[in-house]
Amino acid sequence: MFERPQSGERAALIQVDIGRATDPAVREEFHLLADSAGAEALWCKDYTRGEIEPRYFIGRGQAQEIAEAVAEHELDLVIFNAPLSPSQERNLEKLFNARVLDRSGLVLDIFAQRARSHEGKLQVELAQLRHLSTRLVRGWTHLERQKGGIGLRGPGETQLETDRRLLGIRIKQLQRRLEKVQTQREENRKGRSRREMPTVALAGYTNSGKSTLFNALTDANVLTKDQLFATLDPTWRKLQHDGVQTILLADTVGFVSDLPHELVEAFKSTLEETAYADLVLQVIDAADEDHLDRESVVAAVLKDIGADDLPMIRVYNKIDLRDEAPRVQRDDQGKARAVFCSAKTGVGLDLLREAIVDHFASSQCAGWVQLSLADDGALRSALFSEQAVCEEVLGSDGSLWLNIVLAEKRFHQLQSQYNRALDLVHQRPEMV
User: Residue 260: is it exposed, middle or buried by C-beta count within 10 angstroms (0-12/13-18/19+)?
Assistant: First the structure.
């Protein structure tokens, strides 16, 4: 019986298309996924079939060809860019005498390598265990035998049943721990809402340059690599711009076609950072010839998490690779709908910052407010805490005048909180 090795990256990459010819973009993404996982692709093969073969997914002759290649090149792993059933994986492993991984397993492995935060690690482990729970029958026939022998006789459970029970217990433990983390995330969201800080989420296909753009806009130091899923955990930073209003940007996990259902469910709280944002920047690789297909994938995931009706600006990144000029496309009302820029060279980023600030300016209160030195000290302190004060001067009558820029909703909240009606004056008042 085949004993599954615990390591090994010498791999064969198998692209299988059912009823159609191989799409070069699909093949390229598959190879990028394998490379991101650390696989050393020593043998690659594309197959096109009219229908799925129940036993091996591919034909017996095709499976035998792969088995010969595995033996010839001494491969440890065979990766299929297709969803395999547990029985198909088991049958192929017996034939190849090597580990077999499908697309979902490959993406799960990449996520396991990339997760850094406590929540991210919990989410990945939960997704892996849910995926594994349907595959406990693979490769281990000893799991189906009753435990026996002196000191080993139990209540009659097979080893397989015991593993399934323990797996279920661990899944419930992870779900409880994630619920606590998600509660904390919800509290953080409420805190941002109470402070009325506008939030912007970067969304886009993986490797579209989101993290590079995020670093350029916020002076952050998020990991950027030319690989898929270089970063997983959401990161919040302040947008660097000339205005006084604080705008928060979030860099979230990238999307990919056929994202495993287990990952979508496990990472739902992380992905929902996008759904709770006030504005979504959909980052698009302008140099990618298949960017329209990538946009449709992102749109599908945004719809799945309830973020498809949020205000959006499309950011066409990497225009330096196409020798395009930076520009802004606006709708009939003059609002920015698309910005063409390059996060790497910095060209067009000033246009993007302006578009973001302008989006929130329409819901802001701006002007001069008059405060009493004796009675409004707490309100004055609150306005400075909100970073809403552009200028402060002393009036001719001894009162304070503050030039403020603040979200309209927050402006009304402060008036109610301090029981103080404030009149906005748009002309500079007479000073000392």
Answer: buried
Mean pLDDT of residues grouped by 10 in the chain (432 residues)? 56 87 76 87 90 92 95 94 89 92 85 72 78 59 46 53 76 82 69 65 84 86 56 73 78 70 61 78 89 84 79 93 92 90 94 90 81 89 85 86 81 85 82 52
Residue with tokens 């711009």: 241
The 3-state DSSP class for residue 89 equals helix
Q: Provide Rg for the chain, Cα atoms.
A: 28
Residue 381: CB atoms within 10 Å: 10
Q: What angle do CA 363, 367, 372 make, to 5 degrees?
A: 125
Q: What is the dihedral of CA 38, 43, 44, 45, to 10 degrees?
A: -150
Specify the pTM. 0.64
Residue 235: burial class (beta carbons within 10 Å; 0-12, 13-18, 19+)? buried
Given a contact cutoff of 8 angstroms between Cβ atoms, the answer to whether 401 and 392 are in contact is yes
CA atoms of 406 and 413, how far apart (whole Å): 11
Phi first, then psi: give them for residue 51, nearest 5 degrees. Answer: -155, 165
**Residue 331 per-residue DSSP state:** -
Q: Tell me the H-state helices in 7-158.
A: 24-37, 60-73, 86-96, 103-114, 118-132
Is residue 410 a contact partner of residue 193, using CB atoms and an 8 Å limit? Answer: no
